[in-house]
Input
Amino acid sequence: MRPDSVSSIFWLIFGIPVAFISYKLGLGELTRPGPGFLTFWCGVILCGLSVVVFVRGRITGVGGTAKGISQLWIGVKWSKALITVLVLVAYALTFGRVGFLASTVVLLIVLFRAIDPMRWWVAIVVGVLASLISFVVFDMGFQAQLPHAYPETLLFKLKKILF
Amino acid sequence: MDYFSQIAYGFSIALTPVNLGYCFIGVFIGTLIGVLPGIGPVGTMSILLPTTFHIPPASAIIMLAGIYYGAMYGGSTTSILVNMPGEAASVVTCLDGYQMARQGRAGPALGIAAFGSFIAGTMSIIGLMLLAPPLSKAALAFGPPEYFSLMVVGMTLVIYLASKSIAKALMMVVLGLILGNVGIDATSGAHRFTFGILELHDGIGLIPMVMGLFGISEVLINVEQSLKREIFTKKVKGLLPTKQDWKDSKGPIARGSILGFLLGILPGGGAFISSFVSYAIEKKISKHPEKFGKGAIEGVAGPESANNSATGGAFIPLLTLGIPSNVVMAVLLGALLIYGVEPGPMMMKDHPDIVWGLIISMYIGNGMLILLNLPLIGIWIQILRIPYRLLFPLIILCCLIGVYSVNSSETEVFIMIIFGGVGYLMKKFEYEAAPMVLAFVLGPMLENALRQSLVISNGSFAIFFTRPISLVGLSLAILLVISPLIPWLSKRRPPIAED
Amino acid sequence: MERSKRNIIFSCLLAVAILFGFSAITRAAYPERPITMICPYAGGEYALRPVANYVEKALGQPVIIVTKAGASATIACGLLASAKPDGYTLGQITFGPVTMGPHLYNINYDPLNSFEYIIGYGKWEYGPCVRSDSPFKTLKDLVDYAKANPGIIKYSTVGLATPTHFGMVHLAKAEGIKWEVVVFKDVQGAVTAGLGGHLQVVSQTTGTMLPYIKAGQVRLLASFSDVRCKWAPDIPTARDLGYNFDVVSWLSFGTPKGVPKEIMEKLRTVFKKAVNDPEVLSLMDKIFVNIAYRTPEEFKKLVEIGYKENEKVIRELGLHKSQQK
Output
């Protein structure tokens, strides 16, 4: 199937609940639009346009630069993009609890190794260094208030001793 | 009052070694913050505020202001180098700036951004100096109906951002409007698409969204590529803009400066909108609009100039009326109050040292910034030579820190990742992000202005046509919509293919 | 007593003494790392810094202000409520998120029980303002005109179901007036619309409007607070004029519930000194923050009363979250 056909069907399916929920929020009148007014019509237009794109793809035979969806992922290692996303999600779920340093070191090492593997020692050294430096600069320096856990408090104690 | 004596007075204040020093500190810190994505001037200004309690108010304001407009310079750096907008106003620079970087032209892109910012910044300060009082009166004349028509003009220009299919671009606009409506409706209190999540009550954050849509998605796309191909061409074509670049850019810079200045004056106007509008205008009047989106230097020169001159314009309501036009100005207002300066129409008369010292120091600051930023270009370009497998985790790290530093919210990190995935799919299926982002920002403003206007007019739509500014705006919008349909009215063939 | 028994008793007493001493020392060691202060409003940090700096000096540890803005300060309160009650996280608790927000948003904290208050230190007061060239010279002028011309007067507020809104709602109810609210999302829009003459009345915090009042651009018609505005003492309050309402947003610093007593005591002492310090007071005065002391117990009572009252008004306006679709 052509990419445009697939994506237009997606948007059609997306637009319907949008219009529905907006309708329930209340359309009001034209002179006093309700909260759902704008998004209702947006949902409707979205569905309408997705039909247009779908039909145009069928008629003209051109549904995107690629000829079929499988083409979109030819010659590329889509698993790498997927891994990256999953790793990021895992990071987002944990870094608040575990603290910035621990989670970032793990994140960097994983990313250095999983996508285009660098050597272990490079990954570890750069991972640790980058995490430490960015923590010192952004959190201690710019007060970015990154999540603190045990490793971070240790670092603060170290700073107190040294300075 | 005599302008020359005021200017001379301002010079006498700004050129003292102490104030030169504070100016430098301010713009230096500002540049650093501007380069780092996410972290903005507001936080840093607030942190430094207590240290300014014991220095003369003029010096303090010079430094704090320096942080603000210094940050505007640096924001385009990451947009050009790695497609990651450092702040909302730099989103548009990604469109062509990043493409230029991929073609080995990061140097000229960064250079033109710096020069454009300098020229625009200087012009806006001149405007501030000469035109402040009448312009501020004009700014007050902008009420909800005028904002509405301004937003309508903005929305019609959104179409010009599209490079490919118009139908798909319109779908992105509509999507942007929907996403912009997520949150609690200000006018009615209704919960729209919040699904009970507290963080969504205020809507989806712009920074997480654009960092995901542009920065993260680009990383995801690149990560897939075969290892052999380099993402950035090793051959760097020159460090500075060429003569041709300058020729192409002088128009956009001039137009962007004026546009940004005027839009910056309006409270709530600002750098973001002026950058988008500048891009759309440059594309519309260009002789080769198809080059936009593929590395046209006009697409960098115009928006970067616009967003810098908007900072000059933003000072006008504060200095003449005591009204802050954005959050940064609000912090400055608080600072002024603490120093015992009461902002308002009397400020220029009662505290000429602060006002004129500030204005003159802004010239000097702009000069310092261009001197600071140009040599840095050489360093930034080296970053592009780092192997991508080493670079991209660091890019991701910067994104994560940047997003988290805005609101310390884990939810926003998630939003960024989600939009990273969405942006990745959008690139695959050829939907453009820029129209969506603009609609996302303009939509809520448009809707609020519409409903506020209708309350004021008791439900009558005539209000938009009886008030002069609003009428002009709406007529302009109608013209913009009609013009591609009437080939014999515009000077050349319509630049956008009709669907 | 036998020697061994004496030794045992003695060592037990010694052990107990050591343990007590130890715990006393460890408690006295608070604070041993930086303290986080949560600021619930974007760009609002600078108003907290005077107090934060004083506390920093007094306690010997940095006080880091973290801004977690959003959803009318309810996000910040949610985070404060769920923080560890060890005395290292505290925040500014304003009236909105504990007496109004709970009726509008889906919050994740208990507004009446999740917090322990360190001190009530100030308040935000409200009042309607008009441009100085407006024909309304007193509140009575405005009220009379509004009664004679229903639906004509438009006033700007920041947000719906906020204190800026409520003042005008109470007044309308008392006098049977019909006027229209024009809602803005931010302060500058609301103020600019008024200054530009696009609507007749700006209902705002007096703190925000004072620079314009003093510059003569704007006239304050009345103070909706329980007392007259400190910086505009000749303007009457609504109660002075015979109305039976006031709208005040009380300000406090607080912690999540469950902080150990000694730490709480220490915090309360330090903050009380901070808010009484002349330098802090003069800074607060410059940014027009009203100082108004309330003990933690008094503040808690205020919250409870405010919670019930606001629920009534919000339901009457049809804005309660349970009334939304």
User: Anything to note?
Assistant: The first helix of chain A runs from residue 3 to 25. The mean pLDDT of chain A is 82. The two ends of chain A are 65 Å apart (CA to CA). Chain A has two domains: 3-72, 78-162.
